[in-house]
Amino acid sequence: LKRVKQLPDGFVWGGATAAYQVEGATKVDGKGKTMWDDYLAAQGRFSPDPASDFYHRYPEDIELAKLYGLNAVRVSIAWSRIFPDGAGEPNTAGVAYYHRLFADCIANGVTPYVSLHHFDTPKRLFDDGDWLNRATIDAFVRYADFCFGEFTEVQNWFTINELISLAFSQYIQGNFPPSHHFDVTSGIQAQHNELLAHARVVNLFKEKGYAGRIGLIHVLQPVYAYPETPANQHAADLEDAFMNRFLLDGTFKGEYTDATMALIDELLDANDAHLTIEPGDMEIIKAASTQNDYFGMNYYQPSFVTAYAGESTNSFNGTGEKGTSAFKFKGVGQHVKKPGVDQTDWDWNIYPEGMYDMLKRVATEYPNSKTIYITENGLGYKDEYQGVGQLINDDKRIDFIDRHVEALLQARVEGVDVQGYFVWSLQDQFSWANGYNKRYGLFYVNFDTQAREIKKSTLWFRELGRTIGG
Ligand code: BG6
């Protein structure tokens, strides 16, 4: 563990959660529905209740976080606990819950990093078009303003988690409600509108002089041509523009550059799609682009891409059956497996070099990103329960995290300002499209009893954390 001594005092060492994935209690204390409640009920596959029962058991989880060496935790506020319909009068029971949670974190020396939106738009707003309807942006700004004024104990804010994942899963992949497949117009428009919402909130945060720091979270998924030919490289560039570059440009350059738009336009043309930018949008986005205090980067995996001209198809592997994923994007590319690159049980490529590449790229091409935190990284795995008090063997997770922390350190040594690492996830939790057997937690949750157990990685992660300042 010698290398970890390279990290500075105060390095943020945390675990991440999202409200809907951990809280449960979806019908408690006046909470409104989100975009997920009826959708999941209609599917009948998984219930979001009680998930990890964090709504009631947060004291235990925060205590475990402290005990196992974490100095920070990522949580999100459920918009529909604060404003059950997305707007109107605040729900005092919901507000009180988050005050209790934040107070508990702070009392334990576990700093809360708080997102305002993590894939959980209130149902009323979702029914009216979600981010495709600009009324959602107005409502989001009011909700954010309320939270900044109310939760003054929070010093580290993120507006929206993974703008692209939401847009992509809702309108391209179709595994998030409303489950459109390859609706490319909505897929690009949702990205722009979410970015606009983020920008308006950042501008407001600064204009009103709220204390603390604000930023947003992008998941970055590097795209590599495989095999490396000019045609495949172009396919990779097209996918990269849609998955990474459009939002990175907008967030930190305050414009979608001509080079980026040339790729986006080609991709839109190939799919008979279009993007609408209204007058004034880019001024708002420009103003925000220099005002982010930091950047939250989630990283899981890259894609390897071969050019593809056929029709779009996607067989989403939600079952955990290895080898069943396939993604082909008309006029863009198809995902291929690169020999020698291991995959998880859900066909996700295991490739720490991708984290290194993205850290370097962001620091080099997007200096307005300033300080970077890895706000999510981890391995989805079918951990097997060994009985009460028995260590769960997750050597694969240890190896995964170890190699990714190594990549982070390498980027740091080369000058990238990375100040924190949050493992996804703090405890086992509800995985949106996969349910409960895709576990990521630092702590094991027995979903029958809600008992927490320790994994090998829990102890290993504490050892790693012990050698860093904080
Ligand atoms: C990120 C999200 O995209 O990846 C999390 O921010 C999510 O909410 C995580 O759970 C892992 O994805 P999945 O589909 O394996 O749960």
Automatic annotation (TrEMBL):
Belongs to the glycosyl hydrolase 1 family. It is an enzyme of class 3 (hydrolase). The keyword Cell division does not apply. One of its GO terms (molecular function) is 6-phospho-beta-galactosidase activity. Signal peptide: none annotated. Pfam families: Glyco_hydro_1. One of its GO terms (biological process) is lactose catabolic process via tagatose-6-phosphate. It catalyses: a 6-phospho-beta-D-galactoside + H2O = D-galactose 6-phosphate + an alcohol. Pathway: Carbohydrate metabolism; lactose degradation; D-galactose 6-phosphate and beta-D-glucose from lactose 6-phosphate: step 1/1. Keywords: Glycosidase, Hydrolase. The active site is at E376. This is 6-phospho-beta-galactosidase. GO terms for cellular component: cytosol. The keyword Hydrolase applies. Its EC number is 3.2.1.85. It comes from the Bacteria.
